[in-house]
Amino acid sequence: MSNKAQVIEDTNEMIQILCDTTKLQKDIETLTTKAEDIVVLAENLISRNETQAMNPDEFERRYEEYDTEHNQLIEKATVNRDGSVGFLFRNGVEVREFNQL
Fold first, then answer.
1. What gap in Å lies between CA 91 and CA 73, rounded to an integer?
2. Which residue, 2, 16, 82, 88, could crosslink 75 as a Cys pair with Cβ 3.0–4.6 Å?
3. Computed over its alpha carbons, how large is the radius of gyration of the chain?
4. What is the pLDDT of residues 8-43, one digit of tens each?
């Protein structure tokens, strides 16, 4: 095999490309942040509804909007015995969050 060094170099380069999770990590962070933002919006809406008289139709419309957005991002969430919560995003990315109490 006369090009053994080149094959090794190419293989190592492919391993680096395949193992580089930078973009995947950025996608996870973006999706997690967006999901957290939606949860905060929904919580704020609920709190506002508890303290102020809101039009029930307006509350329902906004809550459904947030719920729909959240459901477009997350396929499922799983609460584990160790207190962690796993999220499976619709794009196939899985994230496991631990409670930091």
1. 8
2. 88
3. 22
4. 888 888 887 777 778 778 888 888 888 889 989 999
CB atoms within 10 A of CB 16: 9
Per the domain annotation, does 63 fall within a domain?
Answer: yes
Tokens 């459901």 belong to residue: 71
Q: CA 94 to CA 89: how far, in whole Å?
A: 6
Query: Is 10 part of any domain?
Result: no
- Phi and psi dihedrals of 54, rounded to 5? -105, 150
% pLDDT > 90, the chain: 24
Find, among 44, 86, 76, the residue nearest to 96 by Cα. Answer: 86
Q: Which amino acid is at 71?
A: N
Residue 64: give the domain boundaries. Answer: 23-97
For tokens 């796993």, name the residue.
86
